[in-house]
Amino acid sequence: MPRGPQLILLLVDALAILAGYWLAHFARFGSGWIAAPLGDIPQADWMRLAVYSLPLWLFIFSLHGLYYARLKQDFSAELASLTHSVAEGLVATIILTFTMRELPDSRLALLLAVFLSWLLLMATRRIRRRLLGGRATAVVLGRSELADYLVRQLEAGRGRFRLAGHFDDASQLPEDGYDWIFCDSAQSEALWQRLGNSPPQAGVSLLPRASTQGALSVANLEGVAVLNVKNSADLEQMRRIKRVVDVLFGTLLLVLTMPLWLVCILGILVTMPGPVFFSHERMGLFGRRFRAVKFRSMIANAAQVKVDLDGFDDKYKLKHDPRITKWGSIMRKTSLDELPQLINIIRGDCSLVGPRAIVEKE
To answer: Residue 193 belongs to what domain range?
Structure first.
């Protein structure tokens, strides 16, 4: 059973799902935007479906590890798990309506409810990350090219883990004070001996010794865990499927979020004169450069003001950046400023689910 922050996250998810159902009923039956030739469904009956399906959704979320807080995934990985869970929640709800005939059945309203719930779940989790911003602590065990590279990345502070220590062998490993262990495979046997028969309190990830150019996956072969390397044909097929999904879902999201685009554009025009969009160079897959597009959240001459700020803080991102306008701050906290990146997704510059594109200096 989830506790503490996990329980709060579960309750927030529950409210987001119920809100998604309520908004879907309003859009389908209460707003008059969409004709209902077969008649309306009373709101009380519709929300009864929401209440009945809610435990199924939360159970599926739990199975996908969305309340497992020790390994703090980056947002793209969390979004992928969330999307899979919502899709399974849709299937579970459809089965529920077939088995309980007294529950209301409206395909369009249900699709709207699922989509709106997904948007709200994504937004609330993004806001939670922005507000809390906490990172898990990790230690690296062993010496290898990959382990040393990981240490440098963690020391740079760009990931979701904060480095708590780097140790040559398992005998130097402290008893506690960290959330995750990244262990070089040469030290794995020593680590298991150190841990004994008891399960580790921290999470453990093994670092492979051999570097590969392909994607890795773990499989179970006759009770033995093996590490598979995907070949070029597998990767090319995965890229093609991913591209089709990006275009379809990117286009769908672009159409459905147009009202939010209008709100953002009007907010920018009213509160901060200047261009609506802001673009900057990013590096995508294989180091390919492209111009990432966002809604402008800073004052028009932000690049010039940055020069004056360099003496105050040498990092481009300040905790309280005076260049960000009030409306820009709202867009950033709700991630609305990133909506134009749907154009980048449709063009193939980046993907809907995947590692974030980085600037060259990273």
So the answer is: 136-211
